[in-house]
Design a protein that fits this description.
The chain is of the alpha/beta class. About 60% of the residues lie in helices and about 10% in strands. A hairpin with a 2-residue loop joins strand 4 and strand 5. Helix 5 runs antiparallel to helix 6. The model has no long low-confidence stretch (mean pLDDT about 90).
Length: about 300
């Protein structure tokens, strides 16, 4: 998948990821295509992405990363299957999809990133407002905005996933699952949807207050007991306290990166998935994880 002759597409590396993707996305959106030579769907998707990006004449850039040669950032982003496509803007991942999509859907994905129409810009701003409200703890306002977006775009995956998270935040797992049923079949594997499903899965094991208190006491009594700290992190994750879960898992990883054969790292990636790609828990947590991995 050589990119010679393409003006707005380049082959990326782990070493150049910060410059080519994160820093470059401060100027215009950057799409990252994680692929491998043995992957048939990658060979289908790659030329479509290149064609669609080149047609935008620099409004968006494409960086293609061969995960066989450069696995580090794919691992940090929790990529478990390829092709995996992420869009970065202003230094952080803002959208993505898995698998090979037809050209029409790839074009729609890029238009969505660029806010290709006035309506798209309005929807994008509304989604940002809803996410900000959710982060501030105003779940009712966030749910109201997401519901309004769905009146305009009933199949808007970000709004569906956001509304499902609002129900989950209020302890209503059944309505959260019912809301996810609104996702079109072709989009059920998108990262936003999978993240909410992971959050719901974790919430199924939500601890009683007494269990959480006991786990906190056990770690306070013996801070070096990684197993007890891991169990505490599991309790926090199940309770939806993703920052607390991530903090304790990172403490384990800072002491021993491969603890229990990578058990803590695997759990941390699930916490990131449950929290969502753009949540501060995930963006900050990935930076902290990267600093441990590349120290």
């Amino acid at each position: 998948m050589a990119t010679a002759g393409l003006q707005h597409t380049k082959d990326g590396t782990d070493q150049g990821f910060m410059a080519d993707v994160v820093e470059a996305s401060m100027e215009q959106p950057v799409i990252v295509d994680f692929w491998a030579p043995w992957c048939g769907p990658c060979r289908t998707l790659g030329p479509i992405l290149e064609k669609s990006v080149e047609a935008k004449k620099g409004a968006v850039k494409l960086v293609k990363i061969n995960t066989e040669d450069h696995p580090a950032y794919a691992g940090q982003l929790g990529v478990r299957s390829i092709p995996a496509v992420y869009a970065f803007h202003k230094g952080r991942p803002v959208d993505g999809f898995l698998g090979a999509l037809p050209e029409s859907q790839v074009n729609a994905f890029i238009e969505r990133i660029l806010g290709g129409t006035d309506n798209a810009q309005v929807i994008a701003e509304a989604l940002a407002q809803a996410e900000a409200a959710s982060q501030a703890g105003d779940i009712a306002l966030a749910a109201e905005i997401y519901a309004a977006i769905l009146q305009e775009e009933p199949e808007n995956v970000a709004a569906i996933a956001g509304l499902a998270r609002c129900y989950l935040a209020n302890g209503d797992k059944d309505r959260a699952l019912a809301t996810l049923d609104m996702v079109p079949e072709a989009k059920k594997n998108e990262s936003l949807v999978k993240g909410v499903r992971m959050a719901i899965e974790m919430a199924a094991d939500a601890p009683e207050p007494t269990e959480l208190d006991a786990a906190l006491s056990a770690v306070s009594a013996n801070p070096a007991d990684h197993q007890k700290r891991f169990e505490l992190a599991e309790h926090f994750a199940a309770a939806g306290r993703y920052k607390d879960a991530a903090d304790h898992l990172l403490i384990i990883l800072s002491a021993k990166l491969d603890w229990e054969g990578g058990k803590a790292k695997e759990k941390l990636l699930k916490v990131f998935e449950a929290a969502g790609a753009t949540d501060p828990v995930t963006t900050e947590g990935r930076r902290r994880l990267a600093s441990l991995m590349f120290a």
